[in-house]
Amino acid sequence: MIDSIRWLIEMEFMAGRLYAESASFFSGDKELSDFLYQLRDDEVSLYNAMNRVDDILRQDVPEFRCAITLDRNTRDRLEKPLMRYRQRLTSAELMPGEMIEYIITLEYSEFNDFLGYIIDAVREFDPEFHQRSSQIEVHRCRIEEFVATLPERRRYCDLIERMRRCRIESILIVDSEPAILRFLSSVFQTRFSIETARDGEDALEKTEANYFDVIISDLTLPVLSGIEWYLSALKNDPGIGNRVLFLSGETTADTRRFIQDQNLAFLDKPVTLAEITTAVSRLVRSSESV
Asked: Do 15 and 158 share a domain, yes or no?
């Protein structure tokens, strides 16, 4: 987790510096330059927030825990738009249109989704972060408001739409932690229609009322556990096990034996984002081949 937080700090620092340098580079266009300075200010604020999270981790605060991290491959993929953006700016070849596309590709990726997840996780016990919970959405709204004023707004709005809302299958995410629900919903909203449930009873009701291509569920849930709602759902939907991914930070030998006997997909927490997305893709491919 510390590696992921420090990576976020580096990314926020680089993004803030790039936006400031871009504002200077395009100083002849006052509206564009002012917009970039506003983005810079947003990044500075988020950079300070992540440094605060790093301080909390150094203090080993027991209340603060994150069940999901970012692996190196995911971080490398998310860095690419920023690196290409920096290369084009450094070579003085950057055009305003391509810069806007780099900004959208970066700001609407899992980079900010993960940042939002960290803020959500911290605000559960640190009041300072309650005011920051909407900061990323405000940041994105600033981008949308600016591109709406541009002659090429349709192209940029279409790109934002593809990044945010190109949904195909449906997914149910079941977890008692609001931060995890919000983060995974943000990650998968570009591919799935999202439903969430915060306890096993709600999960059971939703699986009985609707078909979901994928169900991601924690095992430890209020009212009904993951196994309890699954066994009840299995009575009406014998194939549901092919579409379920269970997550848990604590499992007994009996629970692991049950998961193996049922041939269910399972990941231990803490888990990387890449492990979750890979497991979800595997479930989708498996259901399509049936």
From this structure: yes
